[in-house]
TrEMBL record:
<keyword id="KW-0472">Membrane</keyword>
<feature type="compositionally biased region" description="Pro residues">
    <location>
        <begin position="708"/>
        <end position="726"/>
    </location>
</feature>
<keyword id="KW-0812">Transmembrane</keyword>
<dbReference type="InterPro" id="IPR047141">
    <property type="entry name" value="Stealth"/>
</dbReference>
<feature type="transmembrane region" description="Helical">
    <location>
        <begin position="36"/>
        <end position="53"/>
    </location>
</feature>
<dbReference type="GO" id="GO:0046835">
    <property type="term" value="P:carbohydrate phosphorylation"/>
</dbReference>
<feature type="region of interest" description="Disordered">
    <location>
        <begin position="700"/>
        <end position="726"/>
    </location>
</feature>
<protein>
    <recommendedName>
        <fullName>Stealth protein CR3 conserved region 3 domain-containing protein</fullName>
    </recommendedName>
</protein>
<feature type="domain" description="Stealth protein CR3 conserved region 3">
    <location>
        <begin position="352"/>
        <end position="405"/>
    </location>
</feature>
<keyword id="KW-1133">Transmembrane helix</keyword>
<feature type="domain" description="Stealth protein CR2 conserved region 2">
    <location>
        <begin position="221"/>
        <end position="302"/>
    </location>
</feature>
<dbReference type="InterPro" id="IPR021520">
    <property type="entry name" value="Stealth_CR2"/>
</dbReference>
<dbReference type="InterPro" id="IPR031357">
    <property type="entry name" value="Stealth_CR3"/>
</dbReference>
<dbReference type="GO" id="GO:0005794">
    <property type="term" value="C:Golgi apparatus"/>
</dbReference>
<comment type="similarity">
    <text>Belongs to the stealth family.</text>
</comment>
<keyword id="KW-0808">Transferase</keyword>
<dbReference type="GO" id="GO:0003976">
    <property type="term" value="F:UDP-N-acetylglucosamine-lysosomal-enzyme N-acetylglucosaminephosphotransferase activity"/>
</dbReference>
Amino acid sequence: MRIRSSNYIPLVQYPFTSPRNAVTELTTTFCLRRRVLYAALFTTSVFTLFYLLKYSFRDIDGDLEDLELIFPIDAIPSLPTSYLPFRVPSPPPTSQSTLVKPVLDLPATCLDAYYVHGDACSSPLPPKLDLLWTWVNGSDPLEQQAKMDVQASYGPTNPWRPATSSTQARLYRDHDELRHSMRSVLANFRDYAGHFFLLTSDFPIPATTPNLAFSASWRLGQVPQWLDLSKQTTEGWLDGDVSLQLVHHAEIFRPYDRTNFNSLAIESQLGHVGAISDNFIYMNDDLYLARPMSPASFYTSAYGIVLHLQSDLLVSPVKPTARMQGEWRSMGESNYLLSERFGRRHRPYVVHEAKTVSSALLAEVEQMWPDAFSRAASHAFRETAGPGSPGDINTLFLHTHFVVERAREALLWTWAVARVGGLNDEWREAEARRAWEELGGTWEVAEGKKRELNVQAGRRETLETERINATLIQSGVKDGLGKTTYVFSSMDGFAYATLGVIGQPKFPAFTPDIPERNLPRCFISYDECFAGHSKASDVFKNVAFGNPKCGDCVISALVRSSGPLGLSAFLPPPDRMLSSIAGKVPFLSTPGEIPHLPLAGKWEDGDFSLRAVMSAARFQMVRTWALQLLQRYRYVIGTTPSMFERLTSPKQAWSVLNRIEKNKDAAFLCINDDVVNGDAEVATAFRTWQGQRWRVPATWEKPTELEPVPPPPEAPPQPPTQPSSS
């Protein structure tokens, strides 16, 4: 549900000083309760006035149903925290839908030619992309009070209690990054941006006196202190044709017990944000767009989702031990799940920059591992003392590799089960011989010899620069690739086949300029990959998951057989039809019939036979179904100039910020707060630099005397000058 202004009534702002010890904590709690009491009394008056006005004017103007009361908090702009009371949906959402959601399909008129010949195929109008930020204000008094309350609920031996290390503090510091992250998008991506969504914390309305009570369905939603609440409309806040919507944790968490401080838990619930675009860009508040960007850096209908991965840094499939902490623990837990479902392998690191997310595929990921998502949502802190086991998942890591692995799985299933296997899952000598010969092998071998095959990848034209530019223009992306380069496409096979366990400097490339000696090679043993199976689905399971190297090499051989473009060697014949035994439902008559393979969390538990997978329809053209399956998981891997910087101290911060200003190429920018000393000085330098770099405020921001005057259009922002050591 898109949040409307009528869901909110602005409340109040507070100043706050963090508690330092037990005495100050008690004092702060007392003062906090007194301040909240005043706020609650004021809010009660507002509510009373609201209903009195509605009652008094009920016979005069029916439009007063949408009456909104605005508390004039802009009169005190120096206060750092504000809230919006909101009502949680009743009953609150409890579970995710079991229906598979549709993606933005390619037009049926060109889908076959796209996969057979590699012809261009795209939707007629390029969609705008929504952007979603997650953010909390760590200095918020209710945030701090809620954190103390949750901490107190953990026993001294509970592995999920928060860690006491100093790294916890940096997770919640705020240097006005969010405001300038949004400004950077407006400056460099406005023409392609749809709606902005901000996902942030909420708190129970504090109990201040027995005589003053609020319904449990009401909570206080955190709001950035710079957001001008008086400019809220029925569509949120507007800056031209870009709107900003607020979403709070209680509205999307499943389950939701209390205020959550765990970024991994929050990310596990992103799929529940309603009314967001089919493909959206996920941002942390430390991420910026530093240069004008094209949608080709994120998503196009012609090429699918754009993923940014690091080929020389891999995550192990081994389940993490208790000693592993931080981001790598969550990635390890996620890769363990991926390996249980798609086969054991090392997978590349997902670069920490703006990420493209498919709403439909994120929902599909959650359907595959519902327990892991629910478990992550229940953990209040990211850095824990235990740690508990199993650890939290990394949702964005899971989503990225899910797309790649589902694309690989779809290719192998389409060939082994939908093309070669029998309609009733038979895999006899005829099917085995056909499969082997389609790969380029010789069936008849001399006595004592084994059926073995050396495969060399073929050259491909999918990612030729001229072809990409022409395809993008045809699809409506007039800016072309912009700062991004496409280095691998799902139309050329499987991206991870050559990475091994230590990674490679680059992903495999097959463009015509690659010397033949540099094209990847692999080896297939018939006995290891195909022998001993009587069902097509069992052959598929073995090559896809049981012996992943078999499947990787099968894909390489079939891509070569398909020629320079397309994937024709994988496809069933156009006239192959599966008639259902008891089918009464027309093909694709309900959302539940969207083509997809089993959602089992472990590959051994899935039934991949043709009839089991395609059982929903009365009769089906197998090729049509397979094409719909393949197009669901299209992707390209892109590289975009970027900078990842850490601020650690005042002197180092000035050096970093000046280095960023001198870099005229980087389009993605991440600046981490890793300050160990001089936080106040770093904060001043960082805020000053951000204000100079992105000077133009959004319309939804409060006016402030401290806002720098925008420079003339031709004058670039000047880097801050490092203060003298004297």
